[in-house]
Structure formats: structure tokens, C-alpha cells
Specification:
The strands form 2 sheets. A two-stranded antiparallel sheet has the order 1-4. It contains 23 helices and 4 strands. By secondary structure, the protein is mainly α. The longest helix has 29 residues, at 460-488. It is 62% helix and 2% strand. It has 2 domains: 13-39 and 140-311, Growth Hormone, Chain: A (Up-down Bundle); 331-530, Up-down Bundle (Growth Hormone, Chain: A). The chain starts with a helix and ends in a 22-residue tail after the last helix.
């Protein structure tokens, strides 16, 4: 009986069929990255808002005031009395009634005495010039409630984390394409509910669920793409990241053209329904079918692949074998029991955490530094495009470890320099920050590849799932770290990012180099991987690449 890899070579490892499936599934990266970074535009701070004095709404209606006139009567006296008070989070502790004059509502308090009037903290009486432009104005996420915007992004990442485990397990048990399609349906439905949420609680619940299903779409499309190509085509895992970057580039254009947050939310959610059409063009993973003892279905799909690739599969094939020795109920202890496995696991967990935290922190930082948000976001996304090409050019020439370490170190230096560059040379500050964004993108994309190469077949799925879960943990922490530290000093988060990236750059030098080495199949193989520059490892015959992120 031939092995799966032998049959795949005969059917074509990356022919017309795989290229078509790769292109179709890669579109998922565009919608997923739009969801991933959408908080930058959904949560834009309102340009102009103030706290309304009790009774002002009724008085404004009786006096036919415009919003500008109401603002002048409400905020201007407050500012004249105390220049440090903006009128956004505090108001005069008074109440207007029908006896108040329309032309001089503060007349009875005496001229020039507003500075002595008591102040009160604002609670839910804000007025916005553009009330539906973002979730901040929609749900009053300002002043003492500003932390709730951080919470909304943390909840999304918590959904990513839940999706990695729940839908990752479901994809292993019930099939890749089934979970992919259900996840696409879930993202679309939850996205619509998020757009029309009557309150912030409903918004958070369905943003969590959209994050969970969103991770399911990205994870299963990555699995399907990597499982239908040959073992020598691991680079597709890097190329698919280009479509993630395309989503980042497209998002500011969508936000620029659509003035409301509900419109943006629908624009990034509804395309997921189109992916349901893949039911008729994307097959189940034949590798997964073989692990579920469904050899006949797998062989039928392989014959179809061969047909589309212009190949001919021998009619004598009646069964395919696959090496898939899985550890029953693997645990964290299996990943740290031996020295090399323990070192790899701890370093990779830290690398996932750091890459996600810094990447997401730099993306969200664009929303608080001022300037042209749409143009800056587009440029920062465009500079990510060279990342995949740089990786493709370097990893097969100089290996994985050196680009991995260098990208983290460069990101560290760039963040540190950006923090201390003066504001009066914005072009230089932007250039250095852009270099940091490019570098951390390279690090983020390399960790995808390296992680799957440093675990044996028997523990690869579990090991990659566990380590990549730290990515979502980093995403949960990122908004709180960014927005709360930026409130102290705008550049303080960059200092933290610099330290984290520098430590990561040094740690990844301790990882084995996997350039030109077949994927390990046992823990013993991992222990024998080369640990120093220039040292060659033992070549092993590859049997199965049943890995996913």
C-alpha cells in the first residue's frame, strides 16, 4: 500500500488544483485581519463631545438651540472658570429648569462667578456631534468608561483563544471543511448582531463569539492549505500571510468610505457568507479522512486532484496508508519532559506572546498618536507586504533562527528610537516606527513556520495549539497595556515593546536550526536537532506533516 505522500507526489504536490484551493481559502485572511484590527476604526475617539447639564435637553428644545449654542452655554462658562476643565468628563453641578433664560441661562448665578460653582463628574449625559461614528460614542466609552474600549478588544482576543481550542478540537474530530464552513456562517451572523447590538453587553457577547468563529475560519483554512500540498511546500504557510496583510491594507479604505461603525462592521462581516460557496469547490482534507479511517473518500479526492492537475493516478490503488501516531490525551508535561522539548516549548510560548502583543499594540497605537489615521494605517499595512518576500528569500538560504532573532532585535531598536525621537521631525519618527512594524511582522510570520517544525508528529498538533494560544493571551493584554500606559506617557508602551522584543531576539537564538531538515517524527528526533550555528543535523525521512496553527 502506498503512503499518502507517495500518492500526493503522483497526483501533484502543488498543481492547478492546489493553487485554486490555496487562492480561494487565502481570501479568509483578508476578512480575518479586518476583524483582528477593526477596533482601530470601530473605536475612534469622537472629535467633539461634552457633558450635558441636567435639564439642558428640555431647555435646548424650548429655546430652539443648536448643538453649538448648547455647547457654548454649557462648556464655555465652565472653561472660563477653570481652564483645566474641558467639559468632557465634568460639568457644572447645577440644574436648568423652565425658569432659566434662553439668552443667559447662567444669569442668576451672577456675572463672573462660574469659577466658584461646584463641579460634578459626568455620568451618561454626554452629547456627541457625530453620535454613531464609533462604538465610543454609541455606548459612551469615554472618561471613566474609556477602559471598556480596551475590554472590547480583549474580549475579541478571548474569543480567538476559545476558538483555537474549541474549534481546533472540532476540526480534528468532525473535519476541516465542515468546521470552516460553520465558522464562516458564525462570523457572518455574529457580525450582523454586533452591528445592531442594543447595548454594550450584547455587543461584547457577540464580539466574543465572532472572535471565536473568526479564529475557526483562519485556523481551518490554514490547515486545509497545508494538508493538501506536498511536504516540500511548507512555504505556503508563509505566503498565506500575504492575504492577512492585504486585509490590513484594505481596511482603512473601507473605514474611509463608510462613515458609521455599523457600516464598517457589516462590510467586514458579510463577505464571510460568500465563503459558504466553497462547499462545492473545496474538498475535505484527504489527510484528515485517512486519520478517520475513511480511505475510500480520501482516494476519491486524490483521483480528483490528479485529474485537475493533468496527472494520472494508478487504478491499482485501493488503499492509502498514513503515519499518524498520536499520543493519547497529550498534556503539557509531554512538551517539557525532555531538555530540548522543554526549551523549545518555553521559548516558543514567549515568542508567540511577544509577537502578538507588540504587533497588535503597534496596530492599535495608530489610533491614538494623531495624524491622518487612514493614510498612516494604509502605509503601515503596505510595509508588511515585503515581510513574506523577505522570509521566502532568506529562510532557505540562511535558515530560520537568524531571521527570527534579527527581526526581533530590529523591532526592539526601532521601538526604542521611536519613543525618544522629537515630534518636530515626523517623517523620521514615522520611518523608524514603520521599520519596527515590518520587523515584528517578520517575527510573527516566522514563528508560524518554526513552531510546526520543532515538534514531533505525535505532539505537533497539540504543541502548536498550546504555544499559539499565548498569541491570543498577548492580544488580550495588548489593549490594556497600550491605552493605560499611553495615558501616563504616549511613548511608554514602546519602551515595554522594546524590552520584550529584545529578550525574545536573544531567546530564539537558543532554538535549533531546522533549515534543510525533515520534520521530526519522535521526541528523540527533536532531542537530536542541531543546537548551534553551522552544525548539521541528521536527515530523516519525512512521513507526515499533519500540522496546523
Amino acid at each position: 500500500m502506498p503512503s499518502f505522500d507517495e500518492v500526493l507526489k503522483e497526483a501533484g504536490e502543488f498543481g492547478r488544483f492546489q493553487k485554486r484551493v490555496f487562492f480561494l481559502l487565502s481570501q479568509t485572511g483578508i476578512t480575518f485581519s479586518s476583524l483582528f484590527a477593526s477596533v482601530v476604526f470601530l473605536g475612534q475617539a469622537p472629535d467633539n463631545f461634552w457633558c450635558r447639564i441636567p435639564g439642558a435637553a428640555e431647555l435646548s428644545e424650548r429655546c430652539s438651540w443648536t448643538l453649538e449654542e448648547e455647547r457654548n452655554f454649557t462648556v464655555l462658562p465652565l472653561h472660563l472658570g477653570n481652564e483645566s476643565v474641558s467639559g468632557e468628563c465634568e460639568r457644572l453641578d447645577i440644574t436648568w429648569d423652565t425658569s432659566v433664560s434662553c439668552t443667559s441661562p447662567l444669569a442668576r448665578y451672577g456675572n463672573g462667578s462660574t469659577g466658584s460653582l461646584p463641579l460634578a463628574t459626568c455620568h451618561g449625559n454626554w452629547v456627541y456631534e457625530q453620535p454613531h461614528s464609533s462604538i465610543v460614542s454609541e455606548y459612551d466609552l469615554v472618561c471613566a468608561n474609556a477602559w471598556m474600549l480596551d475590554l472590547s478588544q480583549a474580549i475579541l482576543n478571548l474569543g480567538f483563544l476559545a476558538g483555537a481550542f474549541i474549534l481546533g478540537y472540532a476540526a480534528d474530530r468532525y473535519g476541516r471543511i465542515l468546521i470552516y464552513l460553520l465558522s464562516c456562517l458564525g462570523v457572518g451572523i455574529c457580525g450582523i448582531i454586533v452591528a445592531f447590538s442594543p447595548n454594550f453587553t450584547v455587543f461584547l457577547i457577540f464580539r466574543f463569539l465572532q472572535g471565536m468563529f473568526g479564529k475557526g475560519t483562519w485556523m481551518t483554512c490554514y490547515v486545509l492549505v497545508t494538508e493538501i500540498v506536498g511536504s516540500d511546500q511548507r512555504i505556503v504557510g508563509i505566503v498565506i500571510q500575504i492575504f492577512f496583510t492585504l486585509g490590513i491594507i484594505i481596511l482603512p479604505g473601507i473605514a474611509y468610505l463608510i462613515p458609521t461603525w455599523q457600516g464598517i462592521q457589516l462590510a467586514i462581516s458579510l463577505p464571510n457568507f460568500l465563503f459558504l460557496l466553497y462547499y462545492w469547490v473545496v474538498p475535505e482534507s484527504p489527510r484528515w479522512l485517512l486519520t478517520r479511517k475513511k480511505g475510500e473518500k480520501a482516494l476519491k479526492i486524490m483521483r480528483n486532484i490528479a485529474k485537475h492537475n493533468g496527472k494520472f493516478l494508478s487504478p491499482h490503488y485501493s488503499e492509502i496508508t498514513i503515519s499518524n501516531e498520536e499520543v493519547s490525551n497529550p498534556s503539557f508535561l509531554d512538551l517539557v519532559r525532555t531538555p530540548q522539548m522543554r526549551r523549545n516549548t518555553l521559548i516558543l510560548m514567549y515568542a508567540w506572546f511577544t509577537s502578538a502583543l507588540i504587533y497588535q499594540g503597534l496596530v492599535m497605537r495608530l489610533g491614538i498618536i494623531g495624524g491622518n489615521l487612514y493614510l498612516d494605517f494604509f502605509i503601515s499595512g503596505a510595509v508588511e507586504l515585503p515581510a513574506a518576500f523577505l522570509i521566502i528569500v532568506t529562510i532557505d538560504r540562511v535558515g530560520r533562527r537568524l531571521p527570527f532573532a534579527t527581526s526581533n532585535i530590529v523591532a526592539s531598536i526601532a521601538c526604542l528610537i521611536t519613543a525618544f525621537l522629537p515630534e518636530d521631525i515626523p517623517w523620521l519618527k514615522t520611518t523608524v516606527a514603520t521599520l519596527g512594524r515590518l520587523s515584528i511582522t517578520i517575527a510573527f510570520e516566522v514563528v508560524y513556520l518554526v513552531n510546526s517544525e520543532l515538534y514531533p508528529t505525535t505532539l505537533r498538533n497539540f504543541g502548536v495549539s498550546l504555544c499559539s494560544s499565548l498569541c491570543d493571551l498577548g492580544g488580550i493584554i495588548a489593549p490594556f497595556l497600550l491605552f493605560r500606559l499611553a495615558a501616563i506617557w504616549l511613548e511608554l508602551p514602546l519602551i515595554i515593546f522594546s524590552i520584550l522584543a529584545a529578550v525574545c531576539g536573544l531567546l530564539v537564538l537558543l532554538l535549533p536550526e531546522t533549515k534543510g531538515i525533515s520534520l521530526p517524527e519522535t521526541v528523540e528526533d527533536v532531542e537530536q536537532l542541531p543546537s548551534h550555528f553551522g552544525k548539521c543535523g541528521k536527515k530523516r525521512k519525512h512521513r507526515d506533516t499533519n500540522s496546523y496553527i
